[in-house]
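Cross-check.
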Amino acid sequence: MRPAGYLLFLALLPLVLNDFWLTLVATRALILGIIALSLTFLATYLGVVSFAQATLAGVAGYTIAYFGPNTVGVGFELPFLVSIPLALILSTITGGAIGLIARQSRGIYAIMITLAIGVAFFYFTRQNYALFNGWTGFSGIRAPEIAGVSLRDPAALYLLSLGTAALAMVLVAGFVRSPMGLSVQAVRDAPGRLLALGIPVTTPIVTAFAFSGFLAGSGGILNIWYQERISSFSVGLGPIIDILIVSVIGGLRHPSGAFVGAVVFVLLDTFAVDLIDRERFNTLIGAVLLLIVIVAPNGLQQLAKDGFGRLRQSNSNATE
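Predicted model, tokenized:
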């Protein structure tokens, strides 16, 4: 099936799914997948695993909360046509700043630097009350109404999330084919050769991180409309690890794997309580992650791709 066919199928889901499946599973998986896409993009094309993607999503989410309607009396309200671009701009700038800090780091060093940034942002939001309302954070955040359609409606928020996810994949595909995208991949494959040619590697790295900030910010905006609240817990170590788990399950070398991993993670998170005690969810997700790493070290996306490839090959051989 072509991508357009998958998109049409997903767009028709509101006609057959109830609000539980549409909201708690489908919409949540799309939003989590968009944020995870920002990580898999960096891992795939820059070769860097970033632990700061929850921070970037949080920057956008806090911007929407501060400059939008809330019930805590912090910030001031702007029209959503102003607050949304502002949130994306701030998350993009923050991504670029993180890239500038981590530009000379690879492997475990990049992981540790971005993790340190994420943890620092977590404690900063917890301790700052003027901008982030400290421990409590923001609540009562309402999604806007556009052309008479409230985005609080499950079907409307789902379709918006689906459209954002599709647009994010299109932007990723366009970016990696652009001259800057090719430079980013060159930094991944042979940074020494670029330097030998006199081409600076800082600009591609910062641009890649900034683009990932834009992607994560898009997911962060949708997430705060979905949750209708945000606090330091939204950008803590738990969400940081969750995004990594989603990306690993789907496949760190496949951008679309972020959505595959998100679906698996959300299904486990939603229905694990029917299998085990809620307190043991981390044990379950750890066991599933270990199994996937052993059976499919490149993620479920690559496993499915290889399976379909072998199926086509066997059918071709049978035809001959």
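The mean pLDDT is 88. Residues 3-235 form one domain. Passed to J.P. for a second look.
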